[in-house]
Amino acid sequence: MNFGDKELFELASYLESKREQINTYLDQCLQDVPGSSRLVAAMRYSLMAGGKRLRPLLCLAGAEAVGGKPENFISTACALEMIHTYSLIHDDLPAMDNDDLRRGKPACHIAFDEATATLAGDALLTMAFQTLSSIEHIDKHYALKWLSVLNRISRAAGYQGMIEGQMRDIDAESTPLNRDALEKLHQLKTGALIEASVYCGGFLGGGSREQLDRLQTYAGCIGLAFQVKDDVLNVEGDPAILGKEVGTDEIRKKSTYPSIIGLEPSKSFARQLVNRAIQALESFNHRSDPLRAIAEYIIERQR
Amino acid sequence: MNFGDKELFELASYLESKREQINTYLDQCLQDVPGSSRLVAAMRYSLMAGGKRLRPLLCLAGAEAVGGKPENFISTACALEMIHTYSLIHDDLPAMDNDDLRRGKPACHIAFDEATATLAGDALLTMAFQTLSSIEHIDKHYALKWLSVLNRISRAAGYQGMIEGQMRDIDAESTPLNRDALEKLHQLKTGALIEASVYCGGFLGGGSREQLDRLQTYAGCIGLAFQVKDDVLNVEGDPAILGKEVGTDEIRKKSTYPSIIGLEPSKSFARQLVNRAIQALESFNHRSDPLRAIAEYIIERQR
Questions:
Q1: Which positions in chain B touch A123 (Cβ < 8 Å)?
Q2: Are the C-beta atoms of residues B142 and B136 closer than 8 Å to each other?
Q3: Pick from A39, A134, A150: which is nearest to B163 by CB?
Q4: Which value does ipTM take for this structure?
């Protein structure tokens, strides 16, 4: 796609072509496995279940925004999706959120069984780090840069990031949260990995310190907007489009933006956040259009 | 410890001093966490439950054997223990092996709960890769070497290594295995990470191609010997020393070396493997004494 001509930029086709590249790469990652391991079948089942691919898209768009070549960072982008997918598989387990449906299909532990789902999650997480450290894809002079990307992603995904967020999310089913605690929960559970996705794209793409700071602001805003929109969809979304049940937050008495500040204020808050995200990109040129488009997509999406 | 004077080498004190260094490092890894997260408490509970620390010991001894300085690789060694600990937490879960006791204490999901144990396992796995990629500990000129160590460990721990081994182990409860299939299962489940531990120590320590090949042979033999001994201990071990129940393999009708080739032949097989491991180190000097000592320990251990 030619981003030189802004008029030609079309979100839908950009997202589609990038998603295709991401899906092709992910598909290949699990292709060279001999035998018919149930483990690999379960990994593939969840990985190829047709997610939005938001994190890899953000990574590629982050690289593009600072003038980098997204195609050089497809492996990093896809590793982020492996981490995201593992977290969904484990979150859906009976001992966790106990969700039977994911992306319109039976959750991994329903399609297979609990043990297989647990292991498939473990294996996708491990495969992410295997992918991030595959030195054959790496320009040898930048090994330190890749190590630091891997470190950044592991921190975002770990006990001071995503996993702590999920822990708090589980606890929140029994204890109501105030707005600050809810925001912190979301920042950990979803925000940290979304921020790492944009940041690592920008960092690998050669962004300046100032550009990276702006990308962080952008990512912080859309990460939270994404979660507010998720809460909104859980109230008024269409289960057929969403691919999962709605109204579950209320049944579980979970604190959400709609439950704390109301439905309409939640929608305006999400809109404000997206505006703030786009504002943070002011000094970037047309190459940041994909990031702008993704920000809009985040609150317009119906799934 | 001065390895220059072979006569002075004492296994017990070597293992103890190294174990102490490993425990100190692991303890520090979870020290800088603010608040009182249940997640971190569960991670610490399992990580500091007093394991044998076999994998980190093998990594340090592997470095030592080729003339490297083990103290430079303590973070790598400890990352291996984090991976091992996560695998134990997940293996003990009700949907997996459903073991209530581990290292003489309630398993993580008993001491906490299933959701917390699942997340603590996830978090330890992620922390291993965070530790392996901590660039402040890394000599910048060797970043590529560290990346390749990380890659090697992720492959050993992943869907073509340890996790596939656990998948087969679960399946083996319903389907009897022949000796070849059992050996392959063990090679995946335990062998792969043990081999990676020795290899990475030797590789980081600056071992030659030939030395690394010999270390691999050594590791392959002791990895299998370890598992054969485990099977033997499940038949005739003392639960009080072992810290877990015995006789469970028979109850679960699991294929084991004793069940396939008999108890006494299993013991001689383990001894043969250890002899073969020690033979592989013939051309190494006294600096490989710790590896020799660990090999002996593996079949003499009572827990």
A1: 158-159, 163-164
A2: no
A3: A39
A4: 0.94
Q: Which residue of A has its CA nearest to B134?
A: A151
Q: What is the pLDDT of residues B119-138, one digit of tens each?
A: 999 999 999 999 999 977 67
List the beta bridge partners of residue B105. Answer: B102
Least Cα separation, residue A296 to chain B (angstroms): 32
The domain limits of chain B are: 7-300
Residue A284: name the closest of A184, A200, A213, A178 by CA: A213
Which of B116, B118, B151 is nearest residue A130 as measured by Cβ atoms?
Answer: B151
Do you know the residue count of chain B? 303
CATH number attached to the domain at A8-300: 1.10.600.10
Tell me what percent of the residues of chain B surpass a pLDDT of 90. Answer: 73
Question: What number of C-beta contacts closer than 8 Å exist between A and B?
Answer: 149
Neighbours of A134 (CB within 10 A): 18
Q: What is the mean pLDDT of residues A247-272?
A: 92
Q: How far is CA B11 from CA A181, B152, B272, in A?
A: 52, 28, 21
* CATH entry, B7-300, from 3.10.20.600, 1.10.600.10, 1.10.3720.10, 2.40.10.220: 1.10.600.10
Whether pTM > 0.90 for this model: the answer is yes
Q: In the prediction, which pLDDT does B12 show?
A: 76
Q: Which residue of A has its CA nearest to B136?
A: A148
Query: CA of B134 to nearest chain A CA: how many angstroms apart?
Result: 6
CA–CA min distance B167, chain A (Å): 7
Residue in chain B nearest A41 by alpha carbon = B159
Asked whether residue B239 carries a pLDDT value surpassing 90, the answer given is no
Q: What is the pLDDT of residue A33?
A: 67
A225/A270 Cα distance (integer angstroms): 5
Q: How far is B193 from chain A (nearest CA, A)?
A: 13
- Beta bridge partners of residue A105, listed in sequence order: A102
